[in-house]
Every structure is written in structure tokens, then in C-alpha cells.
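User: Teach me something about this protein's shape.
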Amino acid sequence: MMIEAVLRADGGRITAALAARFRDLDLAEEALAEACARAVSAWADALPANPAGWLYRVATRVALDSLRRNAVRHATTLPAPEPEPTVEDLMTATPLIPDERLRLIFVCCHPAIHPDARAALTLRLVCGLSAQEIARAFLIAEPTLLQRLTRAKRKIADAGVPFEVPGPDHWGERLDAVLSTLEVAYAHAHADGAGTGRHAGYANEMLGITATLAAMLPTESEVQALAATVRFAEARRPARVDADGMMVPLAEQDPMLWDAPLIAEARRYLARVLNRALGTRGIQALIHAEWCARGSLAAPPPWPAILTLYDALLACRDDPVTRLNRAVALAEVRGPAIAFEEVDALSHAGLADYLPYHALRADLLLRLGLADAACRAYGAALALAPAGAERRWLERGRSKCMD
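Assistant: First, the predicted structure itself:
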């Protein structure tokens, strides 16, 4: 449906523009929802020349009508007209305005908002992730997430948080939440190897946003490291899916298909942090760099080095996802039995809705010859609705259990 396509591509920017103008996150969401409802009939005969601009204009009128009704009811005044150029003018002028999205990211990561809610609120409003997707990313229950989002929006309204990027002196207090937001948003795009899902557009957009942040904060190691990581990961995209549309695991990808200029760009970002103490994102960038140093399929995968780096990462960030990723390398270096013990120890770590957990568990069980258990684990992974290329890979694994 065209409306869904427009929302996937531009919904976050439209929400950001509305929220920036009206200083009310709930009003922005409600106005855009009403504009989409009106588009169902208005677009039935012919599409507007600029669908995103149409939604923004209609949502603006809806928001203004709502404010007028409230002004009459409560004898309040309407907000002052926005200065020129208007947000709509900016939206119409270019299909991608990372500054607008970045502005609302910084707003939602305001220190007045509880740390647990900053990134989650931003992912919901700015990036358009569903509550279920965000809850899975943070390994929490969906009702818990919804409560956090409600409290965070109320806090913004009550505190009168300004909808503008703060001055440089205040960037640091929001930076970790901003980077966490970008990581999760990119992870949803990266999880879809074929780049056909509803969040696929974030892959390319995060290249632009991380470049903007890296220019804003040239001495922040974690910012430069994230910019490097996104480029290393995106450079491998041409080899992530085979001719049949099935996912190709990283160790089986042909490095000759990787994007060499993008890898070179990633190395330039990484070089800026190598002479400093590395944080979690710096180590993650080194993991990606280690893979991208592989010149051909004839060269062995760098599993020992990858395991060593994950050991270092675990010392900085000991969480279930890090342990799960480390187990992939552990299986290759020390065997699937030892790795399965590590994965099995995570069974109560809130990973029930985390697809990589079930996929890795299924692969390890299959390698250990436990076909029935592996088949059930593959079924659990497939039940979480993976993207097409990943689904084909999981289905192939499940078929091996039945041979």
C-alpha cells in the first residue's frame, strides 16, 4: 500500500517536523495518523506529486484544528507562526533531511527523561519502530516498554523540553542515548540482508547521520567508532544474499564482492580512535575491521582474533547479546559443545523473543547431532517472522534436521 511505503520512508521525518513545530509528541503522532486516514480516500484516484509533503500539510492542518479547539475550550493562545523557511519547505526541497531527524533524536534523549526511556522513545517516534520491535531490541516485555514511553512523553510535555539540538556543551550528556538509538535503528536494517523490509532505508540513512555526528564531534571516539562500524557492515551487503535470495553467513561471504571504497572510509574513521582508550563501540568496530581485512574466501575466517576481541568486549559490556555473539566465535574455536553451554546458560536472560538466540541455538544443536531439538529451535526462530533471506536460511537449516 502506498501510504505504508511513504510512512516507511518518511514517517519519522514527518513526525520530527510536526513535533518540532508544535512542541507536542502526542499531537504529532495523532495528527499524522489522521492524515494517513484521510489519505486512504484522497489518494484513491490519484497520488499527489509529493506524498510525504501532502501528509505533512494535512497533518499540520489537523494539529492546528486540534489546537484551535483546545484554545477555545481553555482560552489559551495558539503557537506563534513558524519562521521561514518552513519545515515543509525543507522537506519538499530534499527527500532526506538528517538534521531534522537528528534534532528530534537529541530532544528525545534529553537528560530530563529517564535513561531507560530515551532511546526507546526516539526509536518509536523518530525511527518508526513498533513497540514490539523495540521491546525485543531491549529484551524487555512490551507492556513495560509502553509504560516507559508514556512516562517519557509526559515528562517532555511537563518539563517543556525545547525541540532543538542543544549547544555543544550539552551534547555529551545525551550522546550515549543518541548512539544507542542509532545502533538499534541500524541493527533493524542490517538484520534484513536483502534490504527489502520496512526498515531497510535506515541502512543508507545511518551512513549520513553517523557522518553528520562524526563531523559534529570529531574527538568523540565512540562516535567515530560507530561511523566506522556502520560502514564496515554496509560494505558487506553485496555478498550477504546469494542468487537464490538466501542469506549467506559472514564466514561464507566472498570478500571480493564487498564494497572496497566503503571499507576504506570505515578504516579512516577507525584510525581516529586507535590511539585512544577503546570503549565498547571501538571494540565492536575492531571486530568488523578484522572481518573486512579478509581478502578472499581462500583465507581462513579470523575466528581466534574475533573471539579475543569479544573477550575484551565482554569486559566492557557484559550483557546477553554480547555473550551470544561471542558464542558464535567460541563454537568455531573451541567447538559447538562448549559454545552450547554458554548459550544454554542464557535461557533465562530475556531472549525468548530474540531471533538470533534461537537461530544460534538451532545451529549448535544441529552440529551436535540433536536433530529433534534443533528442529524445534529452528521453528522458534521462524515463528519470530524473520526477513525473507534469513527465513530461507533458517528453513534450509530446519530441513537438515529432517534428513
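Now, about its shape. The domain at 1-95 is CATH 1.10.1740 (Rna Polymerase Sigma Factor; Chain: A). Residues 361 and 377 are 7 Å apart (CA to CA). If you'd like, I can walk through any region in more detail.
User: That's plenty for now, thanks!
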